[in-house]
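Batch 3, record 17
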Amino acid sequence: MSNKNYTRREFIRNLSVTALAGLSLPLLSSCSREEAEDFLQKHFLEMTEEEKERVIAKLEQRYLEQYGRKFQISTQEALPETLWGYGLELSRCVGCRRCVYACANENNTSRYARQLHWIRVLRLKRGNLINLEDSEHYYAPETVPEKGFIYLPVQCQHCQNPPCVKACPIHATWQEPDGIVVVDYNWCIGCRYCIAACPYKGRVFNWAEPNLPKDEVNPNVHYLGNRPRMKCAVEKCTFCIQRVRAGRYPACVEACPTGARKFGNLLDPKSEIRYIIERKRVFRLREDLNTESRFYYFFES
Amino acid sequence: MTLKSLRMRTTLSALAIILLTISTFSSLAVGAGQEFPVPPPPFTEGIFPCSNCHASMEVNRKKRELKEEHTKIRMHHAETMRWCLDCHDAKNRDKLRLYNGELVNFTESHRLCGECHGNLYRDWRAGIHGKRTGYFMGTGKRTYLLCAHCHDPHEPKFKLIVPEPPPFRPTDRRNVK
Amino acid sequence: MESLQGLLRETWHFYKKTLILVSRGSKIYYAWCFSLLAIIIAGFIFYWKQHEMGLLETNMTDQVSWGLYIANFTYLVGMAAAAVLLVIPAYIYQFKPIKEIVVLGELFAASCMVMAILFVMVDLGRLDRFWHMLPFIGSMNFPASLLAWDVLALNGYLFLNLLIPIYLLVKSYYGKKPNWKFILPFILLSIPWAVGIHTVTAFLYNGLAARPFWNASILAPRFLASAFCSGPAIIIIIFQIIRRVSAIKIEDSALFKVAELIAYSMFLNLFLLGAEIFKEYYSGTVHMASFKYLFEGLHHHNELVPWIWAAMAMNVTAFILFLIPSTRKRLSTLNLGCLLIIVGVWIEKGPGFVIPGFVPDPLGEIHEYVPNLVEFMVSFGIWALGLLIFTLLMKVAIPIETGEFSHTEYEKERPYLRPH
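Prediction for the assembled complex:
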């Protein structure tokens, strides 16, 4: 996109938004100032730094009232020369679901009246890996691993060709330079086309206002990641954007008791993920769909 | 994110790969002295230092069943060809003994395990086998776990664990308003 | 200046006359309108509840994330596209009996379009952010997203289907010949556009590699074929009602012609469906799961099975009725066939098409979806609104077509307005 073009587009958009604001003034006058501001909030990628700061301040205030906690809302951009990749050693996963709940706690997902999880652990009969039709999502034995079964955790695979990003009619979801597929929760209109488009069921929807108990809130959040969401916006795994952009392992990696989960920078030849790709037998789910996922399952070499 | 910036990113990434590859080769020699920050070894409370008891005891090198002490230890680790003193130093019980006779602390027990489990040891050093926590890059600390944190060295097979509850089904009462 | 004033006065008179026309009618007319209004209000109340509480009020889940709303949407886009069936013979081949009623068919398409768009809007979680979708103002993901295409295609089609009949009706009201140079390009454009809207809607599903049930290239032709059954079928019924309650003349031959077209379309529809079923069952890959769920049930989940077989039976019966000239040309069997098609196609390409796309979901989970009261009531509300809009449009369009409501009538009342 050339610069000149962009400016013109920007101009048209600003003009139109102003016109929209003017036209909807009678409607908005019945709302509070805050509601009006929410209504007219721009797309995250089109906000200036000051606008971002204003939005962050507003959100911090809102979260303080709602959850009684002081939130740290980061808008940290992608680190230079990073492209995140994930590794999961299938032969070591025991299906204990520690990752599922560590993820929920870290990422402030709704706990009930729709419970949202970004990770699903599938139980498959041994001898079966691709046909997921016989998978069991709700296994609840006394102990794991069980004889005769293997476990396949699935979450957003942060594809290089993400079908969800292509599907979104309004650019509410996009791929960051470090490969993380994010959602602007304030831009999403809740059409759920991305959910239909995702071959990994990597996306879940806030069917109602999320239910997040005050004492379970994680106040260290990223704007495009784990900040508390709102009714009818879609959400998904962000590789713990708030952690990995600070160099920390994602919550699921730290929670895994068998160390089956690995994470690293694909552009760094010394990273753990590069070690895995170069020395282990890796595969990616649904490679046939050409999504070029960055989530590498692997076995002992 | 514009197309231009995307293209630039690709070029930069390629450059970075080249630079990083060069730096890897030049740092290979340094890698040998790598240190692994680990939490304290998982001792049963009050058992360490072992010399508290063992210093005053006579060394009995005979392979036998222990009837009075260490009764909780069950040896299921190639037990037909192994015995306590293959790993624990007979004279200094607070140390472990490598094959070449070198004594190492319990905080370095991975070196002992690595003597047999070479492949796993290589993966562990690379951060692939076993769990890492903390920071994988930048100035923050990365913590390794010792083999013994997850595997009981006397009975290394991974124990069964209780799984977390399954997700609510879509029709679960807790999932409805 | 004087002429402008005159025009304004004329327009004012036109609207006043329109309002009077619409507000007066027989007892049946009132009963019809008010019962529709009651359903609309009920639907709106349920929608408001859904809007306030979120889509949790519906039975949709992360497993089956689209339901009755999108099913109706798909069906109605087909209905609207079918108006082209009447336009082609009317304008291109100048087939006389159909030409008289084509304006009504186009208004029907416009009403369907309104319903289709409303079904998408009630399905949106955040209707308050609707402006994000507007071209230039929002950030439309065009041309990558098929949904963005659909927004443009549907609104464009709605525009065409309002412009063409309104232009023709206004010309007719003033007793003038339409300026064909002006309107014919729009009419010609509306033909590929009609094919376009349904193709784009098919591509909306077709393009999703994640859903093998929809990811079949035969989908767009199938959609068109089934649309060309259900759309004309409902038009045949509506035209019979119109000629009974109004002065407008609609010849039987026009209805029979449309029924003949339905027979061809139904043959194509069944053939294409058969081809798809053959491919799935003969190759028997894991992608067959959704078809199996629809036609036989999957792992004891068989909620859709009776419905799809009922739909198959209806479609085949209707096909036979319309194939045989004697049953096609008898009003009783004709109407029976139409009803069978309307319901049969609705099941086949509504719930019978949307739901199996989600069962089993990409991770193999099987969750059976049944719409709940909110979804039914909101859907009834939208259908009622569409019917009401169509009724009111007819209330104005028919008197213009028959010449009862015209500028000459108006001139008679106000002779001083005549040019000297």
